[in-house]
Amino acid sequence: MATKDIILIGAPIDSGKRRQGCLMGPDAYRTAGIVDALSSLGHRVTDSGNLAPDSVAADSVSSPNSSIHGLAETIGWTRALKRTAETLPADTLPVFMGGDHALSLGSVAGMANVAHAADAPQFVLWLDAHSDFHTPATTDSGNLHGTPVAYITGQRGFEHFPKLETTVPTENICMIGLRSVDAAEKAALEALDVDLADMRLIDEYGIKKPLEAFLERVAAANGRLHVSLDVDFLDPSIAPAVGTTVPGGATVREAHLTMELLHDSGLVTSLDLVELNPFLDDRGKTASLMVDLTASLLGRRIFDRPTRSFA
């Protein structure tokens, strides 16, 4: 197994939605042992601590949608995360520990610029119950954690957000685990060429088939792969610590198989861990599972799984 230089970047962003608690996510990953889990696999792990958002005055930005929540703060986080991603040391694998999924507005935008500088196409694997393809104009909830994919693909409506020098082509995005997509998002996605694998497709064909097809395309293009793992990709019975639970998500084995296949591919260059709300967890089981999945992505094999007790 190739040894990697991994940088953990805490991003306690909690402005992408109204329900609070995700700001505790980065420290929950640390408490669940993410440094030791990755170091034990032979990787060199640096914890860079937690970022802070850039300061953006609320009266300096506006939205035509009166329901938008936390606009100025989310823009500040996007600026800080994008800049951080763009200035990482070469040949490192960043793990952005959130924080809600608005984190990906900045992490993916920055990594896309890194890929462009390396003359490589950026691909994104979106492991999520939701497509997050709203814009500030189409969201009814006003929660900006539902907008990252629209932003990184260059959709309209993000005027106050950092200008995108590099957008991610829609055909370079694969969403796996979908089971809650709003009508506006569905209409927009049906007009595009995003790879979509909802839970019915996974029930019928398994999770391996759509993932391997996508990974083959990434490899053929010599692309860089950013993985964005939302807690609600998982079934809430095994991962309750998320404010957007949708029944029928990935099982423990489906999730670990996904991570193992990603590791086997050797294609992953950056990772988001998002939407962990420790306030909703059960004795840390969700944080521990997310750490175990990260370890699987970075080389832990099935025989090496730790036995955990939550009694």
Provide a descriptive summary of the structure in words:
This protein has a single domain (5-302), classed as Arginase, Chain A. It starts with a strand and ends in a 14-residue tail after the last helix. Helix 3 (71-86) packs parallel to helix 4, helix 8 packs parallel to helix 9 and helix 9 runs parallel beside helix 10 (285-297). It has helices at residues 25-31, 34-39, 71-86, 103-117, 148-152, 183-190, 199-205, 208-220, 252-265, 285-297, and strands at 5-11, 44-50, 92-98, 122-127, 173-178, 195-198, 224-230, 268-274. Helices cover 33% and strands 16% of the residues. The protein has an eight-stranded parallel sheet with strand order 2-1-3-8-7-4-5-6, sandwiched between helices. It is α/β, with parallel strands linked by helices and 311 residues long.
Give a concise summary.
This protein is α/β, with parallel strands linked by helices.
Relevant terms:
16% strand, alpha/beta, single chain, 8 strands, globular, 311 residues, eight-stranded parallel beta sheet
| Overall mean confidence score, pLDDT | 96
Q: Hey, roughly how much beta strand do the residues contain?
A: 15-25%
First-residue to last-residue Cα separation: 34 Å
Radius of gyration: 18 Å
Q: How are the strands of the biggest sheet laid out side by side?
A: 2-1-3-8-7-4-5-6
* Whole-number tally of structural domains: 1
CATH homologous superfamily - what is it?
Ureohydrolase domain
Q: Considering DSSP H and I runs of 4 or more, what fraction of the residues is helical? A: 25-40%
Query: What are the low-pLDDT stretches, counting only 5+ consecutive residues below 50?
Result: none
The CATH class: Alpha Beta
The CATH architecture designation is 3-Layer(aba) Sandwich
- Secondary-structure element string: EHHEHEHEHEHEHHEHEH
Specify the overall morphology.
globular
Biggest sheet, open or closed, and with what strands and sense?
Answer: 8 strands, parallel
Number of distinct beta strands = 8
Protein structure class: alpha/beta
Number of H- or I-type helical stretches: 10
What is the quaternary state of this protein? single chain
